[in-house]
Amino acid sequence: MQTSGMQTRRMNNSFARGVLHVVGALVCGKLSFGESGAPSTSPTNIFAPASTPADSIFGLSLFVLAVTAAIFVVVASLLVYCVVKFKKRKDDDGREPAQVYGSNQVELAWTVIPVLIVAALFMATARVIATVQNPQPGNALEVIAVGHQFWWEYRYPRLQVVTANELHVPVSDPAHPTPTFIKLLSADTDHSFWVPRLAGKTDLIPNHPNSMWIDPHETGLYLGQCAQYCGTQHAKMLLRIYVQSQNDFDHWIQEQRQPGRRSTDASQGQRIFETTACMNCHTVAGTAANGRFGPDLTHLMSRDTIAAGAAPNTPENLRLWIRNPEAIKPGSLMPAMELNDQELDALTSYLETLR
């Protein structure tokens, strides 16, 4: 009987998650269907947690929702009862009914019950906060995320890798957890790191390091957003987290450690890159370019997007981004380089070799 009860609770919990998934996805306009007709999970769906911190927050939200729903049902039921029971009748003579002053039982009830509800919510919230702010485990992958206007810089200090806008982490096997510890820094103003399916929002504040951790249980792409207004292009300061198998992650790290590739066919483009303001802002390992104001471009073409997720990383978009950043991201701090068509083609061809 006990086993049957546990199975029933699990089925009910799965059903509730499924309903919330579909409802939330429909509300957000993020529900898609595969060939079989079954709904597929959106990479930004808050109702489908895929990491321990997100799962803890989701469980807390269900508990709070259940408590507030129960309060709503009780209050609404009493209100309806009073409206029906004490509505004005035809034989009402308009006289004021007998007044009752004071009731120890009623006053005790509406004092004690709210206190108990608040205490329960407080303890549940404190427990979740303690879980999501758990100190860094010894076997965690360490990543430093730096928020810039308006892009993300990622550093893997132990692995000696620096990249931008697209964070790669290994999947965490529940049997052998491999969490990722993320130290959050800001290079300019306030930002906020939020990937709904992996963890809650955590702010990046200048001169005040913050931290968070994730342990994704499923491989795939998880999308997020800077959740703190940080300037003109706050809405296009997007987050992309690629959760990979351990082998795929190790392979990615090996590729990212390689210096920038040289190509004799793109020597003119490299010369343009190294003789303009490009090298003052960007780094390409193995070359004289060692700038720190913009993203590291050593393996630019290994990324799916440019401009912090604002556009797909195609030669056409890359050329447009160099020629006129405002066309893709109005308010971007990257200046237009004022190059002619021949120089644009050469520079784009060079950047396409950075894989």
Protein described:
- The chain has 355 residues and is α+β, with helices and mostly antiparallel strands.
- Among the domains are: 141-256, Cupredoxins -  blue copper proteins (Immunoglobulin-like); 264-351, Immunoglobulin-like.
- The chain is 38% helix and 18% strand.
- It has helices spanning 2-28, 52-85, 104-132, 246-256, 267-275, 278-281, 315-323, 341-351, and strands at residues 32-33, 39-40, 141-148, 151-156, 161-164, 166-170, 180-186, 191-194, 202-204, 210-214, 220-226, 238-244, 305-306, 311-312.
- The strands form 4 sheets. A 5-stranded mixed β-sheet has the order 5-4-3-7-10. Strands 6-12-11-8-9 form a 5-stranded mixed β-sheet. It has a two-stranded antiparallel ribbon with strand order 1-2.
- A hairpin with a 7-residue loop joins strand 8 (191-194) and strand 9.
Helical amount among residues, as a percent range?
Answer: 25-40%
Strand order of the largest sheet: 5-4-3-7-10
CATH-wise, what's the superfamily of the domain at 141-256?
Cupredoxins -  blue copper proteins
Q: Indicate the radius of gyration in whole angstroms.
A: 27 Å
Overall form: elongated
Largest sheet: 5 strands, mixed
Please, what is the average pLDDT? 85
How many DSSP E strands? Answer: 14
- Tell me the CATH topology of the domain at 141-256: Immunoglobulin-like
CATH secondary-structure class of the domain at 141-256: Mainly Beta
CATH architecture of the domain at 141-256: Sandwich
* Number of alpha- plus pi-helical segments: 8
Which series of helices and strands comes N to C? HEEHHEEEEEEEEEEHHHEEHH
Estimate the strand proportion.
15-25%
The unreliable regions are 1-40
